[in-house]
């Protein structure tokens, strides 16, 4: 239950549940970047006299449960969290601009809900079980959508790299866009397969070295075919 706070002439208990996404839903909130984002948000909350009760990230979006004062204005709170964190994170990790076209870290929209005594416990429970549910979600929905059907050993490996399927998709979509802008042509399946050895050298994708090669090649072929069908329908370059 949220604590009761006392001001000069008023008593209050105000909590909000905030959610916003990374621009283009890119999966960047992991490792050091995820740690830095959370550190920045905590400092922004302190600077604006806001208490973060719970905070959780999920690869491409942020959840916050915050305790506010009557003087706080939700659009201003969101602007502070998103604007300051984006500016400072880009300064610390300039390489992010290569993946986020237009130089924006966060999607301009956001979700906000008031929190009652009952919903506070529900939100807290959601934060606690979120990480446990991520693994099964990736295996059931993400991996199957990219035609990757892992055996038990591969499931353990994929579970250690949450969001692996979306990482492959986002990586090749970025390469496809860049190639299409420069040449007017997209990447072929063979071009994607040629790039695979270079991707495997990336520390973030060590798990690719052990994924079944046939399943992985099938995944790449499906991706390249999907991109081809998409871009053939476009009248303008993305």
TrEMBL record:
<dbReference type="GO" id="GO:0006313">
    <property type="term" value="P:DNA transposition"/>
</dbReference>
<feature type="domain" description="Transposase IS200-like">
    <location>
        <begin position="11"/>
        <end position="126"/>
    </location>
</feature>
<dbReference type="InterPro" id="IPR002686">
    <property type="entry name" value="Transposase_17"/>
</dbReference>
<dbReference type="InterPro" id="IPR036515">
    <property type="entry name" value="Transposase_17_sf"/>
</dbReference>
<dbReference type="GO" id="GO:0003677">
    <property type="term" value="F:DNA binding"/>
</dbReference>
<dbReference type="Pfam" id="PF12323">
    <property type="entry name" value="HTH_OrfB_IS605"/>
</dbReference>
<dbReference type="InterPro" id="IPR021027">
    <property type="entry name" value="Transposase_put_HTH"/>
</dbReference>
<dbReference type="GO" id="GO:0004803">
    <property type="term" value="F:transposase activity"/>
</dbReference>
<protein>
    <submittedName>
        <fullName>REP element-mobilizing transposase RayT</fullName>
    </submittedName>
</protein>
<dbReference type="Pfam" id="PF01797">
    <property type="entry name" value="Y1_Tnp"/>
</dbReference>
């Amino acid at each position: 239950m949220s604590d009761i706070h006392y001001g000069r002439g008023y008593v209050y208990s105000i909590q909000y549940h905030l959610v916003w996404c990374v621009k283009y839903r890119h999966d960047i909130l992991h490792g050091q970047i995820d740690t830095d984002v959370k550190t920045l948000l905590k400092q922004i909350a302190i600077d604006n006299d806001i208490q973060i009760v719970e905070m959780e990230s999920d690869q491409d979006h942020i959840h916050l449960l915050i305790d506010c004062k009557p003087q706080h204005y939700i659009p201003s709170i969101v602007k502070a969290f998103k604007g300051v964190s984006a500016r400072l994170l880009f300064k610390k990790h300039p390489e992010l601009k290569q993946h986020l076209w237009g130089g924006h870290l966060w999607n301009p929209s956001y979700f906000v809900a008031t929190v009652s005594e009952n919903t506070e416990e529900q939100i807290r429970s959601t934060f606690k079980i979120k990480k446990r549910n991520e693994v099964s979600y990736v295996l059931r929905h993400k991996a199957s959508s990219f035609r990757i059907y892992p055996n038990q050993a591969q499931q353990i490996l994929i579970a250690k790299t949450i969001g692996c399927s979306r990482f492959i998709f986002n990586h090749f979509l970025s390469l496809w866009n860049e190639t299409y802008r420069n040449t007017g042509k997209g990447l072929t399946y063979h071009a994607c397969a040629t790039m695979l050895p270079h991707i495997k050298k990336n520390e973030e994708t060590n798990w690719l070295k052990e994924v079944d090669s046939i399943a992985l090649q099938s995944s790449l072929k499906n991706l390249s075919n999907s991109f081809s069908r998409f871009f053939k329908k476009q009248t303008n370059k993305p």
